[in-house]
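Sequence in, structure out. Go.
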Amino acid sequence: MILLTPGPCMTSDSVRAAAAAPDQNHREAEFETMSSDVRRRILDLYSLPSTQWRPYILGGSGTAAVEAMLTSCIDSGPVLVIENGYYSGRIAEILAVHSIPHDVVKFDWETPIDVAQIGAALLSTRYESVVMTHHETTLGHLNPISTIGALCAPLGVRLLVDAMSSFGSETINFDVCDAVCSSANKSLRGLPGISFVLVNTELASQMARIPRRSYYLHLPMYGSESAPLTLPTAIFRAFHQALVEMPSVAQRRLDNLDNARYVRERLTVMGVEWFEPGPIANCLVSIKLERFGSLAKLSSHCQANGFLIYGCKAHLAERYFQISWMGTITRGDLAQFLTEVLKPD
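Output:
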């Protein structure tokens, strides 16, 4: 089955083979050497000096990294959440679970965010942090980190970024960020089960004084080279292999853009519309469902032909579906799907 989904994503044969290597203990010197190399490679992707950024790696899905970032990097609040999709909405839900004071600036999921409205909110209340998604995968919005960061910096407001789907395939302005979280899967093309948070050293030095809200997700516990708790070692080996195979971020971005152009040109020839009201990410497309019948019918047809597509969230499920080349999807895979499988009614 070819997964045209924005997560879990397709991986290479060598990444899967790394996960099937002999059993390994996370306390072995060999594993700790590999762990050190993973940390270095994560930082190197964006040329981040270890003197300015610290990587914290934990076992768990991407949501674990988001929750670890929120509970470990926010002191007493309040914080401002920028919500323009399902995943940024989840951020507010996590804050509510932990009783962290927060406000939400909500935008329609089908329109770009209004920066002026965010600026007004920041001037109306003294916020500790702003929390946002970079690539809001609900429809594909690519939200403007640099612009939001420029609003935060003069006010002394931290910027915490969920870069789950953009890390490794989009430009990220770390100069305006205080913490960024992502996953081994998604654009890095490892297996699900490892996630990480990058924290700048200034904030990292303050995390120990922030009230502890969780045992497992407490980032200061993950600051040393040696894992404090048992990591999913097989998944970690696969992540290391994925990072070894990873080209530069610039090259992966160019490859994704090339596929994006191809897919959108093919959809245009087919007379099919897709979502594009503003800046969108380069690794997926949200396609209008109206010419394909129900999602259940379309999904069944695609699976019968060896492809898995992705339904959109919440109220958008009846209007859009998604295909993504975030994982190890070839041009041949996309061509086969678009020319032989995807047929409007």
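Check: Residues 135 and 166 are 6 Å apart (CA to CA). The chain has a mean pLDDT of 96.
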